[in-house]
Request: fold
Amino acid sequence: MNDSNLSRRDLMLRLGQIGAGVVTLPGLLHAESLKSLEGSKVRGGGRAKSCILLYLWGGPPQQDLWDMKPNAPEGIRSEFSPVATVTPGIDFCDHLPLMAQHSDKMAIVRSLTHKSNDHVPSVYHTLTGTIDPTLAGAPRQRRRSDFPMVGSVVARFSPPGNLPATVTIPRPVGHDGVTYSGTHAGFLGPQYDPLELKPPGEVEGPPPHSLELPDGLSDRRLRNRYSILQRIENLDRRLDQVRPDSPLGLDIFRQQAVRMLTSPEAKHAFDLEREDPRLRDRYGRNEYGESFLLARRLVEAGVRLVSVVWHYIQPNGNVMNIWDAHGGPNLSCCGMLKKDYLLPPLDLAYSALLEDLSQRGLLDETIVAMYGEFGRTPKLNKFGGRDHWGSCQTAVLAGGGIQGGQLYGSSDQHAAYPRDHPVSPQDIAATIYHALGIRTDLEIRDRQGRPFRVCEGESIAALF
Reply:
């Protein structure tokens, strides 16, 4: 049977068999028609075009990286030594020499604080800018009742393009069969979910959104099937006088999905083989460096917010949230940080990213935000590790109108609590929205129609 002779039932069945790429991408790409209706009401604040969110899942230790306390007593003081950066008055640890050469592009916020020492609510809080008091203990599978993550809010107020407004690479936060709450669009619906090409480690199933066509289905056959579907639906509308719910109809989003699956430009954005091998070496030939490079390619192609989730998949498939540096009998916190899955690739990839964005003229229009779900305890535990500590951590911001070479806020003598200018996760979210020109007083509604502000935080105006 050729494509032109497909019955409607057979057509629907076979369209459903060609993979998540076609079935879910139209919903994923159904963003954003409301943006064209709302017009200038969305705009406010900065004029950055995009954001790269570097999420150090597990919680990096501020005392060992960007807020060192060399005069603290033994048992609190880091094993590492501070090293001067190119900005007078700002020191990093001596295992971040390349990053130190780019401190003039960074704003170091040393007073980020919240009340949770638990991974689950802290991930939710830092990725959505809201608190869910029901989250605690074991991870809970993400739900459609969740508040949307920052990238999904950005997608909600972004115009449609050839690529989704938000993408998460290499995979979202999750393990043991659970994808964490706070990692998708929640009550905004699947049309605003980030594009996810890989499931979390230890979560079985196919990639949530595939850009590859199944074997045996060519671009031409996909276009033919789509053309048939269009004719059937146009006939239905004439016969039944059905008017689409959306002012633009679903068809525009199906068209966008087909463009993504068949467009060389969309596929090229994800193809690192098109990059100069020397630049790939500069970022690092590992999953972290390649994710940072891919993030740059995606924002260059028009994606508004790319989340890069930093964790480690062991050869046996098990997940390690490696920034969770509790230490062990044979490995201190600083011993972990020196491993080839933490500070060496971070120093290489982050410095390459700022350098690359700057050289391409993209840094001014791309805000780069780096933080985790919390900081670490000032006091070392019996293994020389540091435990969970929501009361104080450091966030590193760059680009997108942020004035580089500055400190904002400070911590006490042990980096345990903010000394001044405390900043909440909702303030960080508001700062990202401000840079992207999205007003925080805009209204979003949950599935019951209840209104919520985009964000209750305050942008850190002094950074701009």
In short: Confidence is low (pLDDT under 50) at residues 1-23, 31-40, 237-250. The chain has two domains: 1-30+212-269, 44-201+274-463. The longest strand covers residues 106-112. The chain has 14 helices and 20 strands.
